[in-house]
Amino acid sequence: MLRLDLNIRLRILAIVAIMTGCGAAGLAQDAGVRVALDDGRFEVWMPGNPVPAYFHNTASKFYSGSGTTFSLSTLRFSAKGQADAARDGVDFLRRFCAGLMESWGGEELSFEELADFDYPGVEQRFQHGVVGGVPPGYFTHRAYYVDGQICSVFVDVAKDKYDSKRDEMDALRKKYFKSLVIDRKRPPHRAFDHADRDRAKWPKPDPDLRKRLDAAHGMLAEPFAFCQTMDLDEFHWLVDELRPSGYRPTTFRPYIAEGRIRVAAVLLRDGQPFVIASGQLSGQIEARNQNLGQSYNQVDIGGWERDDQFYYAAVWRRFLPKRGVNKPIVGVWDSQIEDRTKEVLDEAYELSRRHRMLGTIGDIEAYRHSLIAFKPRPAANFQHIQGDRSLYERELRKKLVPYEIDLSLRKSGEIEYLASFSDAMTRYKEAHGQTPAEHLRSCQEFAKSGLLPVAISVMYRDGQGYESASIWHDRIAEP
User: Fold this and answer.
1) How far, in Å, CA of 20 to CA of 433, rounded?
2) How many folded domains does the chain comprise?
3) Both 199 and 102 in a single domain?
4) Residue 166: CB partners within 8 Å, gap ≥ 6?
5) pLDDT exceeds 80 at position 31
6) pLDDT at site 62
7) Tell me, what DSSP letter sits at residue 29?
8) pLDDT tens-digit profile of 266-290?
9) Which pTM does this prediction carry?
10) Nearest-angstrom CA–CA distance, 132 and 348
11) What are the beta bridge partners of residue 458?
12) 192, 248 Cβ separation under 8 angstroms
């Protein structure tokens, strides 16, 4: 396996450009191309889907840590783009490369045709100046035409590193390209790179835990578990029982129902150390963040209001440099949340988790907001909405991918949806506006199709009962 020098900055960008006919039936859900580097350590699977535009940037993934930046993006083309590529061959690839070089203000150093795969391919090298805060560097770009699709890989080396370690940089670049794999093998599901390998070492959960999750409109599976209506005390007990088997809570959303505090939660089986707490005041959560320092990152926030007091629940995951840094904001009033949100976005963070509670402070009704932002910001485009169910459904019709959802109560008694969407391409399913029993049946179907839960939320209204919502992805963008 390749290892990156911690003092070397590399930018690796793998792109799959899907080129399918817009008016045709399109590819099957599992059709697509996998691009992988470093024995699958870095990989992306992009399903083929038709698009109306000639060229449309639809998906990106971003990874940074230990001096390395790694971004996965998707570029898709229409039927016209496919026809142009079939007609022009290598010339089409040259134009594709030239467009990228122009966007970086680059100066071409070399261009050659490749024969390392059974697909037409080209390699272009260019140097560039400062672009969007990225220092000057040397780009090497390889693009391949694969069965009506384009796959390309970029390696960008900072100019100062290349000038001082030219031979080392050239050797490292060649190793990356030597490890390149392009095929139609769908990657396995996994929440963490090591999880599939380690699960066999962990003890199997007690069968009684499955019964408890079933009773809470949830399920226990090999890579995950979730619940919708479990009592808070029982949930904490369950988490302790599942911990030795590698399960870690990633979504933890308590709510009040029928006079009790219940929990909607997702647990992934990745074996990562974690800290969980509930019934905390905002100052206690902030103090916990200070005490945990660089050791743990907060990954979710939830809570409930009772007797004019807001109580919070949170989960922290062991800090991993390659996963970036999280920034939590807890218990901000309506009048402050817009400025605080702008603050984190201006600091190049991206919103990840959001939560809102309606409370009554004396005779005054007020909302308390919490959020978690993360850095580095992915290269994908993100949209965040807050509104009723019809607004959420309109966003779904835009073909964006939902990745976060939280239900809260309005002053009117209606349920409001806080949701986040991105244009990152991944196979997904979601369900909303259902009772827990209905929602469980939907989730069981999602699990059968190989999807994993990324977010879940439940809200209860007196006289109207429970309403559940969740989002499931083909691959986990691990929180």
Assistant:
1) 34
2) 2
3) no
4) none
5) no
6) 46
7) T
8) 999 988 899 999 999 999 999 988 8
9) 0.66
10) 12
11) 468
12) no
